[in-house]
């Protein structure tokens, strides 16, 4: 099945939320537990959050198998300095992991950052999420710092890539 990477519309919000929920449970529940995942999804992955990303200056892309079948998404927002963007979300349906969808979404985000004059991308990842750590390192991201995220009671790594 052909996957298209494109900007989202409000009709994609339900699919984006479905992807976020499945990916968070698969990747993060073993690290932080179901209750933390529930709370985080409720607070940071509601429909209004995604509507705001669509309507504002965020870079936001969806991977779709058909017009309404969202299989992945990614978003980045400019930091205080307009030349640095923060990759806040990149998630793929767990049963689609390993198909290259994440690489394509990340490449789309990076190209858009460059078109907008961005010079670098930063991101944070849970230290115990080896799949994500390996993914970002394989895509040229350098580990800059360690941090503790008290929202989810987990250690994390901060990564950066110069464009």
Topology:
Blueprint: E1 4-6, H1 13-32, H2 34-44, H3 47-55, E2 59-66, E3 69-78, E4 84-92, H4 101-115, E5 120-126, H5 130-138, E6 142-149, E7 154-162
Parallel strand pairs: 4-5
Antiparallel strand pairs: 1-2, 2-3, 3-4, 5-7, 6-7
Beta-strand content bin: 25-35%
Overall spatial form = globular
Number of domains: 1
The rounded distance between the terminal residues' Cα atoms is 31 Å
Model description:
The protein is of the alpha+beta class and 163 residues long. The protein has one domain: Gcn5-related N-acetyltransferase (GNAT) (Aminopeptidase), CATH 3.40.630.30. It contains five helices and seven strands. It has helices at residues 13-32, 34-44, 47-55, 101-115, 130-138; strands at residues 4-6, 59-66, 69-78, 84-92, 120-126, 142-149, 154-162. The chain has a seven-stranded mixed sheet with strand order 1-2-3-4-5-7-6, sandwiched between helices. Helix 1 packs antiparallel against helix 2 (34-44). The N and C termini lie far apart (31 Å). The model has no long low-confidence stretch (mean pLDDT 94).
Jot down its keywords.
alpha+beta, 7-stranded mixed β-sheet, globular, Aminopeptidase, 163 residues
Summed up:
With 163 residues, the protein is α+β, with helices and mostly antiparallel strands. It contains five helices and seven strands, in the order βαααβββαβαββ.
